[in-house]
Amino acid sequence: MDIILKNANVAHRDEPVRNADIAIKGDTIVAVEASIEAEAGQVIECGGRLVSGSLIDSHVHLDAVLAAGLERDNQSGTLHEGIEIWTDFKGKRTIEAIKQRARRAIDWEVAQGAGFIRSHADVCDDAQLSTQALLELRDEMRDRVDIQIVAFPQVGIKSFPGGEKQMRDALDMGADVVGGIPHNEVTREAGVDSVMFIFDEAEKRGLKIDVHCDEVDDSHARFLEVMVEQTFKRGMGAQVTASHCVAMHSYNNAYAYRLMGWIERSKLNVTANPFDNIILQAR
Q1: From the candidates 215, 225, 229, 264, which is the catalytic residue?
Q2: CA atoms of 72 and 57, how far apart (whole Å)
Q3: Distance between CA atoms of 242 and 268, rounded to whole angstroms?
Q4: 238 in Cβ contact with 279 (< 8 Å)
Q5: Are 270 and 237 in contact (CB under 8 A)?
Q6: Separation of alpha carbons 57 and 148, rounded Å
Q7: What pLDDT shows up at residue 282?
Q8: Which domains, ranges and CATH numbers included, belong to the chain?
Q9: Nearest residue to 181 via CA among 139, 142, 223
């Protein structure tokens, strides 16, 4: 063996944490069992420390990290003002500046055990600065971390001039996942149309879906039900993720209970983002 990790508390998928040794040959784990006696070029005593597979950061905006202080402060503390500030700031960026900040954040994540990162890239920009920067960084750091890039229309698809074209441009450039933000469209109808656009593009291209969904306090924001229905009807299951979904806290109990049942049946994923949403607006 090349390496043996001794006396590790091993966490693997849904199995109970157990104490074991781990034998590694080349780049392959060949055994995880108690008291491995084989000789190895290197023996590492773990002393009961936790050993697990790589951690997953399923939702981050690497094009916006470490940008605090580069634009005016958010006086209201609301998501809407935050989006306005971001929109004003976008045109002042460069690809290299985006990459520099994102690379620093990725280094921090990898140092804490992250091996998989899904990042949203704002595509509402004819220059596609976020998309280009993060795609370059994804490829440059491929040997250290697996990064998925979500084509994310921060201000909308149907209600934003050129929104559909900008989404398709980002996907043509090589984005891995189709994103969306239906509650940011002007009308309910435009929001539903944007969800249909997202599912159609993903199905046509064989891509996953990850949508910012109902990230508002409005109990009438109910695009999650549209996502669930389309996921169920198209049989896309775990290929689809709804992120945030915080309007659910404003739904009446009967509706929320029924919707949760359909989420389970559709197998759609939900990514909660507590670090953001416990401090925004009414939450």
Answers
A1: 215
A2: 28
A3: 7
A4: no
A5: no
A6: 10
A7: 54
A8: 3-52 (2.30.40.10), 55-277 (3.20.20.140)
A9: 223
Residue 81: pLDDT band with limits 50, 70, 90: confident
8-33 pLDDT, tens digit each: 999 988 889 999 999 999 989 999 99
Please say whether the beta carbons of 21 and 12 come within 8 A. Answer: no
Instruction: Find the mean pLDDT for residues 239-261.
Output: 95
Q: Is 218 exposed, middle or buried (0-12, 13-18, 19+ CB in 10 A)?
A: exposed
| Amino acid found at 114 | A
Q: Tell me which residue of 189, 207, 208, 281 sits closest to 244, measured CA to CA.
A: 281
Q: What are phi and psi of 165, to 5 degrees?
A: -65, -40
Continuous H helices in the chain: 79-90, 95-111, 129-140, 163-173, 188-205, 223-234, 253-266, 274-277
Q: Is the pTM here over 0.70, yes or no? A: yes
Pair 223, 214: CB distance under 8 Å: yes
Q: Which residue has the tokens 């006086």?
A: 75
Least confident range from 1-15, 63-77, 172-186, 223-237: namely 63-77
**Tens digit of each residue's pLDDT (9 = 90 or more) over 179-212:** 999 999 999 999 999 999 999 999 999 999 999 9
Whether 109 sits among the annotated catalytic residues: the reply is: no
C-alpha torsion sign, points 237, 242, 246, 247:
negative
Query: Which amino acid, residue 22?
Result: I
Q: What is the DSSP string of 98-136?
A: HHHHHHHHHHHHHHTTEEEEEEEEE--STT-HHHHHHHH
